[in-house]
Each structure stands twice: as structure tokens, then as C-alpha cells.
Structure to design on (189 residues):
């Protein structure tokens, strides 16, 4: 379950990063 | 404008976003800037609601694809490239909707289109939260528009004349 949680967290981060890029916040 | 890739079915967790997403679809041709920010609101709010379960992540990822495609297509529009301009655009549009419905109301003309205008105005004021905190005036307009839409809808449904 540890690795499943890690993958989920990485995907979440990816979404957050895409959202920040979209809004020119990076 | 090129068609957007369709979204997967809406996960139940995102039910509260269905009206904003439908408003986005309805404005894809009529006003792409409004459509873009409705999706951005759904994206931002959806991430707060649930970005962990696979079903929600998949939905949000596809919604993000749509947003990125739209931003590319509308890349020369200042209301997209500068959020301050986008905010003014959405706010003006919401106010126009509100004033149309309010004028109809005051003239005693009650119909589906004015109910929808009140409701859409309230949804677009929700969308303004992507730019920051709402002004007191916007909060009042949102509350009034949502109440009016519900009240007039119920009156018409029950065959009563709104007061």
C-alpha cells in the first residue's frame, strides 16, 4: 500500500504542477 | 475552434460541479473565455474535493487536458493570458446576466430564460472565486440570484404568480 500511496501522491503533484503552469504560477 | 476531447463520466464526488461544467459547454461557442474559466473553477474545486481516488484523478486529468487545449487555442486572448482581464470579463458577463433577469423580474415577465439567467449569474459568481475572495456585492448578488431562480421556478411550477 505504501507504493500505491506514493504513486497517487505523485499523480496529485503532477496535477497541481499542471494547474500552476496553466495559471502561470510557476 | 477544435472540438475538445470528451470527459469521462462525472464521479459522484463532483456532483456539485455539474452545473458549472454544463455552463462551460453551453459557452464554448458563445463565449470561450467564460467557458474556460468555468472549467478552471471546476478543476480547482475538484482538486480540493478529491484528487486522490483513481476515478477523480482520471476525471481531473482529462479536464486539465481540456484546459490546456483551450489555453493553446485562445493563446492570443488577453482574458486568458492575464487573469485580471479574465476576472473582469467573467464579472461583467455575470452582471449582464443578472441585470437581464432582474429587469425581466421587475417588468413582471417570468419565464424559463430569466430563471436560467439568474441561476447562471450565480454560477459565474462562484467562478469568480478562482481569482480570489468575492466582494460583498458579488456575494449579495449571488445569494439574491440563486434565491430568485429557485423562488420563480417554484412559483411557475405550482402555477403561482411570483410577487
Amino acid at each position: 500500500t505504501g507504493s500505491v500511496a506514493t504513486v497517487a501522491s505523485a499523480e496529485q503533484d503532477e496535477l497541481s504542477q499542471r494547474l500552476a503552469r496553466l495559471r502561470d504560477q510557476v | 475552434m477544435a472540438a475538445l476531447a470528451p470527459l469521462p463520466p462525472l464521479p459522484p464526488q463532483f456532483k456539485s460541479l455539474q452545473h458549472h461544467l454544463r455552463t462551460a459547454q453551453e459557452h464554448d461557442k458563445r463565449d470561450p473565455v467564460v467557458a474556460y474559466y468555468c472549467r478552471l473553477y471546476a478543476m480547482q474545486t475538484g482538486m480540493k474535493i478529491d484528487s486522490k481516488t483513481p476515478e477523480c484523478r482520471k476525471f481531473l486529468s482529462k479536464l486539465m487536458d481540456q484546459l490546456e487545449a483551450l489555453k493553446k487555442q485562445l493563446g492570443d486572448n488577453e482574458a486568458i493570458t492575464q487573469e485580471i482581464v479574465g476576472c473582469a470579463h467573467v464579472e461583467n458577463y455575470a452582471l449582464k446576466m443578472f441585470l437581464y433577469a432582474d429587469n425581466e423580474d421587475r417588468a413582471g415577465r417570468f419565464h424559463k430564460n430569466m430563471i436560467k439567467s439568474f441561476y447562471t449569474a450565480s454560477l459565474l459568481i462562484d467562478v469568480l472565486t478562482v481569482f480570489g475572495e468575492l466582494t460583498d456585492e458579488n456575494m449579495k448578488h449571488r445569494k439574491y440570484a440563486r434565491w430568485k431562480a429557485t423562488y420563480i421556478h417554484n412559483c411557475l411550477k405550482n402555477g403561482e404568480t411570483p410577487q
Summary: Chain A is about 80% helix and 0% strand. The interface with chain B takes residues 8, 11-12, 15-16, 18-19, 22-23 of chain A (CB under 8 Å). The mean pLDDT of chain A is 79. Helices of chain A lie at 2-22.
